[in-house]
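User: Show me an example of a complex going from sequences to structure tokens.

Assistant: Sure. Here are the input components:
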Amino acid sequence: DAGVTQSPTHLIKTRGQQVTLRCSPISGHKSVSWYQQVLGQGPQFIFQYYEKEERGRGNFPDRFSARQFPNYSSELNVNALLLGDSALYLCASSRPGGSYEQYFGPGTRLTVT
Amino acid sequence: QKEVEQNSGPLSVPEGAIASLNCTYSDRGSQSFFWYRQYSGKSPELIMFIYSNGDKEDGRFTAQLNKASQYVSLLIRDSQPSDSATYLCAVNPPYGQNFVFGPGTRLSVLP
């Protein structure tokens, strides 16, 4: 079975722009979580979605939003990009419930200039 | 106060030795604990998870959990240079569905 997929792999944006990142979970997984990982730190939780509903939100500003589609894929949107948004954005999928083990995709490396 | 703490390292061990990685967490009600390996420039890879007190072994890896001491550890036996990576401890706190990660410990296995 294919693992978690994310697109694009790399992205360069300018301050103030908007970006959309995409994620497809492992087949059979219905929960998707988004994390931000800044160089040298552990991943920080942004959102979790299960059955198209937001089930958790981390300490991120309203510029960050997400949604989940009927096929359980997900998008993360970031508006009004700041230099500090430069990071590796990780998507993880898990079985229903979310407290089970999470499997990460390859990530999207976002650079804001 | 940080919720999940790890020594940042680097932890250097010779090839063939046992590497011991430690993690402490603050939420006493946490139930699920995970170890991820992350190579430079790559995404985290799940290598072990443990839900009950005691030891759990999988090949060269052993996870140890002590909920009373709020302590999780990962032992890597017969360490190989390919084990050189950053090891992330993750905890599923009782108040939500998300994972809380520690900052990671960088392990270097010297040939």
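The lines above are the inputs; the final block is the predicted structure for all two components together. The interface with chain B takes residues 31, 33, 35, 40-45, 48, 50, 55-56, 58, 88, 90, 92, 97-107 of chain A (CB under 8 Å).
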